[in-house]
Design brief:
This protein is of the alpha/beta class. It is built from ten helices and 14 strands. Magnesium ion binds next to α1. The site of magnesium ion has 4 residues, from α1.
């Protein structure tokens, strides 16, 4: 299978007058075509460095990066990519339309084709109405939407987004998610950097967590947010007492009539259900407990003494 992104032993050490900063330690990663991949990590973890390496903006200290089978050093690989930089600063004296014309020209678009692309893209990001307004008058949300339009103008096969929802309100974020869902629907692969966990949890298929230049976790977003041995049992009808001596019960929420159960196997879980049924409780629902990415993230960040590589899962 040919991946959209293939990184092998990719690393970056910045060297400033005798000081060395290992921003990214050698990393291997494959991202499938059409996937939405999230890279999480606190400030300084190396997220932007990784994106810049995938763009060929900075040169790796070691390793390689291939985009759809093309080495990132080649022009062809770069033509596949659309990029929204972190804290982008487009010329404020341009209107949204003029900025898109400028960047469209840079991607080799012109004439009718360019104006058609601009119209379509403005429509997609809901900025048609504001195209003649100078960028300096845009709100933060509008700024991000016009930035996305710029990144999408060349109809990229890979969209690289660095903190796309930073500093925008919940409605603006929802709007960004809508645009990304649309773009993914067209088969575009999306790689998104964020320190906003809930955002990443909502839109990604897979997520990696970066800490001090090391990938400390990699997995399917859905699986990472389910803790395998915890279940929630919701009781039906009205329960007056707190159920006592229930095997594996760690918590009971009287208001919701929900209990949290630790069960290593399905057998154990069913024993709990049998116990409850034998005591006359009605069960309304049983579901795996979701642990938020934030909990996982915090646990990983606290774990300072463990060598990070021990956490990596394929
Ligand atoms: N051009 C540079 N020169 C020297 N150090 C840098 C440079 N860019 C980033 N760094 C350092 O590399 C580390 C990772 O930075 P960065 O990739 O921007 O992290 P993130 O995007 O996760 O916040 C930080 O310690 C940062 O200070
Ligand atoms: Mg960054």
């Amino acid at each position: 299978m040919e991946y959209c992104i293939s990184l092998r032993g990719l690393s970056k050490t910045y060297k400033n007058n005798k000081q060395q900063i290992e921003a990214l330690k050698p990393i291997d990663l494959d991202v499938a075509r059409g996937e939405i991949f999230g890279l999480l990590g606190p400030n300084g973890a190396g997220k932007t460095t990784m994106i810049k390496l995938m763009l060929g903006i900075i040169r790796p200290t070691s390793g390689s990066c291939f985009i759809l089978g093309e080495d990132i050093a080649s022009l062809k690989a770069k033509q596949y990519i659309g990029y929204l930089p972190e804290n982008h600063r487009f010329p404020l004296y341009l209107t949204g339309q003029q900025m898109l014309e400028f960047y469209g020209n840079l991607s080799g678009l012109s004439g009718l084709e360019l104006s058609r692309r601009i119209d379509e893209t403005l429509e997609l990001v809901k900025m048609t109405e504001w195209r003649k307004l100078k960028i300096q008058r845009y709100s933060k949300g509008m700024m991000q939407r016009i930035g996305l339009a710029q990144a999408l103008l060349n109809r990229p096969k890979l969209l690289l987004l660095d903190e796309p929802t930073d500093g925008i309100d919940p409605v603006g974020r929802m709007e960004v998610r809508r645009i990304l869902e649309h773009v993914r629907g067209e088969g575009t692969t999306i790689f998104v950097n964020s320190h906003l966990l809930s955002e990443v949890e909502l839109i990604t298929d897979r997520v990696a967590i970066l800490r001090k230049g090391v990938m400390v976790k990699l997995g399917n977003t859905h699986e990472l947010t389910q803790s395998r041995d915890r279940f929630i049992i919701k009781l039906g009808a009205s329960v007056n007492d707190t159920p006592a001596n229930v095997p594996g019960m760690v918590h009971y929420d009287a208001q919701k009539q929900e209990m949290e159960i630790v069960a290593q196997t399905l057998q154990e879980l069913n024993t709990v259900i049998d116990t409850l049924r034998a005591r006359g409780y009605l069960i309304e629902a049983v579901s795996p407990k979701k642990s938020t990415l934030e909990e996982i993230f915090m646990t990983l960040m606290e774990d300072h003494d463990t060598p990070a590589s021990h956490h990596v899962e394929a």
